Amino acid sequence: MTETGIGRREATVSDVARLARVSKATAARALGDYGAVSDGVRDRVQKAADELGYRPNALARTMSTGRSHTLGIVIGDIENPFFAKATRGAADVAAEAGYDLILSNSDEELAAEAKAVAVQLAKRVDGLLIAPASSLAPGNLQSVLDARRPLVLFDRTVPGVEVDAVITDNRAGARQLTELLLKAGHRRIAFISTLAHEGGFRAGEVLSSSAVGDRVLGFLETLTEAGVPHPESFVHLNARRDGVEVLAARLLGGADPVTAIIASDSLIALAAFRAARERSVSIPDQLSLVGFDDADWMSLTTPGITVVEQPIHEIGAQATRMLLRRIAGDARPPETTLLAQRLVERGSVAAPAR
Amino acid sequence: MTETGIGRREATVSDVARLARVSKATAARALGDYGAVSDGVRDRVQKAADELGYRPNALARTMSTGRSHTLGIVIGDIENPFFAKATRGAADVAAEAGYDLILSNSDEELAAEAKAVAVQLAKRVDGLLIAPASSLAPGNLQSVLDARRPLVLFDRTVPGVEVDAVITDNRAGARQLTELLLKAGHRRIAFISTLAHEGGFRAGEVLSSSAVGDRVLGFLETLTEAGVPHPESFVHLNARRDGVEVLAARLLGGADPVTAIIASDSLIALAAFRAARERSVSIPDQLSLVGFDDADWMSLTTPGITVVEQPIHEIGAQATRMLLRRIAGDARPPETTLLAQRLVERGSVAAPAR
DNA sequence: CTGAAAGCGCTAACAT
DNA sequence: ATGTTAGCGCTTTCAG
To answer: How distant is the Cα of B221 from the closest Cα of chain A, in angstroms?
Structure first.
């Protein structure tokens, strides 16, 4: 029954109990559907609850049970289609299991991530899903481990932190892309990522995103195997999101222009495509463009863009399933799930101009 | 200081107080930074807290203060770029103000929305941001009002529910698009939306999304003013997300094909573009395509797509600012903020073939 | 400035 | 099957 009246506070179990003329405990049992209650009493309590417009207080319940039925998820940026999809995957399995998600954007910055983690822990989430801002700085993750809260990483791992993780085979994906380009005859291939990175890339360096690191690895080893000299000079990191276009333009101009570009995510592919278009360099005739992640528009451009696709929704879903399992008490040693990437060939690759 | 040891429970204010040799109240004051505490004591408490690895329990705090510093947001689908952007806008102003977001996807279904609202209320969010699944069914919103929780709607309003809302001028946007098409010489223009709707559209009908309703209104009135007969036959609702392509294909084939399409969101524009491409109907020569929302890929296709753009990030941001104001106690009568839409002309409009 | 005690709304023993 | 009584961890009077 809908409640009217002004200035009343929310009805509590006590209120319901009083109206139903039973003890608080009995009312709680009937309302919370646990313990044993006779049918008659159950009805009376239910009726009283309806009459008072009783709404349970999940926080109070959490206080006494210790379970919040809430998961924390911290990602780079919900506007990035990758994270949006992964988050949806997570939200779906969470909702299915009766859990909610508290969402935080880190913008890939450790400080923001730290704050997000602290708040989530303070709110006593039952577990955390994190796409770590850095694979090199375990601090933020360590604090959730210290707090003894289950944690599952996704998209990237962080060496030294022993937790579950769900990632995809970036190295293999990069190999596929690179081989495709090599086979088409390319030798000057730029790999572009917005990953934050100090100074130019040097061979053997460990990157702050294991995902990008693995891609670079697959890229470099494939080039090296093919006998391409100094392949690391083709790795371009630290591109600002809004600077990718300029970078791409620069790579396409100059004395020794690249003939192919590998974009480390769909947003970069977008910028590269735009740069090419604006300088009237034709794809695939004058430039081959490939990338990671299959954005829905990639089949719409002329030509369509060849990519390796990852099961993004599933990344979030699997990570959440694993987290739920841990919350349920699974104590097996941490494992990292490696999902496959799949090549989707479209028209953006051809032999280099000369 | 990082804590070691197994099986210990989280440190509480009491623990800290004991170690610092002060009362619980004093420790709480020092930790929570309220009340008055002498410097010496403050230090001692802080040190004790560090030593124990004390992490505040935000739920307990909420229990006694009544404020959770958490906002609920319920949207259609976080994978939809529109909602992703609006959510980011909301998250940004929320974080700025020290609030978190609990996210729920309704898939535009009332039942899912009802459940989401119930859970959010149970978790005692300080306020809710909702893009209502239906402008016709006030029930879910009424329950948040009944719970006396501040509520701000965005993207659509629901007549009869007196609350704040942030929307954009869909009617004007639709007029602009329609006029553009009319001016180019089009007379057979299809308006496509995935909005759930029973049976064919009849003039004067109120739709379950005020946003789509306003667009249809602007569309119809502009056509009517131009003397186009039976314009309501051009309104196509209830398209399944994965059926838009077929629908578009059907509209382009048949005896009396449309010469222009207005897509009610970027996902529909995408599907329509693909349908045209697949049937080799050339845009803009054989089909003019326009739509709502400026997706980032729309400047990449050949031709680029003409749209009216809405300040999506700002929709979420403004809604959240308003919500925060209400939470702070602002009791002015509800107001609905109307943001402008802006025409972005690209190359997808031309005169019809014949 | 500091302490004691009550209370937020619920669940969990432990009786009866 | 139902009731009594303690808490959960924090804030908040109210004293001193």
So the answer is: 32
